[in-house]
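pinned: reference chain
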Amino acid sequence: MSTLKTTNIQNASSATTNIALDTSGNVTVGNNVTVGGGITASSGTVVMSSPFTMRNKIINGAMVIDQRNAGASVTPTNGQYLVDRWRFQASQTSKFTCQQNQGSVTPPSGFKNYLGFTSSSAYSVVAGDYFGVNQFVEGYNTADLDWGTSNAKSVTLSFYVRSSLTGTFGGAIRTGDGSNYSYPFTYAISSANTWTYCTVSISGPTAGTWGSTTSAGLDVWFSLGTGSTFSGTANTWAAANYVNATGSVNVVGTNGATFYITGVQLERGTVATPFEYRNYQQELAMCQRYYCKTFDQGTAPANNTVTAGALRGTARLINAASAIEPAVSWRFPVSMRAAPSITLYSAATSGSTAGQWTNDGNGTYGANARASFIGTDGVSIDNTGVILGANQPWIIHAAASIEL
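pinned: its structure tokens
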């Protein structure tokens, strides 16, 4: 048996060392390593610059969870949430339709869902216009990046995108409040109506104010059309509120133009790793930190639709005449980001007053339903000021929202 003694190993066509060995037996590899078999560590610790699990700081990047719309098409307004965690932003109304799996095209391999947009007109953007879809990432989930300090870490954004248009498209990463620091980026779609895998590596900013607790830590934005006021130079940090790179394609400018996206991943480091698939229940629970409902997952919240999943009130004595009003406690499926806002929905299949209790026995309905004692883990729902039928069951639906 012979021994090869060397310090560096370098490919004949490479300008730098591929593998370096030191006197302590440590090996440094200059780039990626492909292993055909297993890897065994007989001692010591395997340390990763980016974790094996929970790498992806984006929630619902595969567009699977759609609690609010249950797959239905919407004409979104500014600030409206689409599939969970993804928010539509627009300076003008009625310029897009949006839907989970809009157009029913085949998603990229390994995916079952995507978020689709179709332009409803040929609109020419002016300076102050903006159209896009974004996700705010909570500060607790970005604190490890150390942004705004000298230790700021780089990140890589990766995603699959498809459009009827071609050219250079854009977006941005910015501070959670969008006010003082942003990084416009570009990506290319060279073939129309074809899924394209894109990656964007971004150096960590040493300036700017970045949330690190329950507020928004950062904002990831994909532009569908942006005017000059909110567009900046690509691939550089700027002390400005930019949501797009100057000169990018405006999807809103072409009537009937489509834009589909899925597999969005934001991770620490300069290399895009394969998309991190989390199981459905885990992804749903992560979404429910910001929005949850009493309706079944396949049912969009609305008045006078279904009774399944409704909260059922119990009798509560309120006066000497033994008249009662319903009351019930709803424990949220997970702890929410903060005390949420509560929306109430009638649980009848028809005819009841919106947002009010319905008598589960005779179909009559009440008034003055209210949510009280709202916390991060639950809420009490009762009725006040109007006496309802004694010793009878009353039902109601609810949704809780505390988005960033």
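why pinned: The two ends are 64 Å apart (CA to CA). DSSP finds one helix and 23 strands in the chain.
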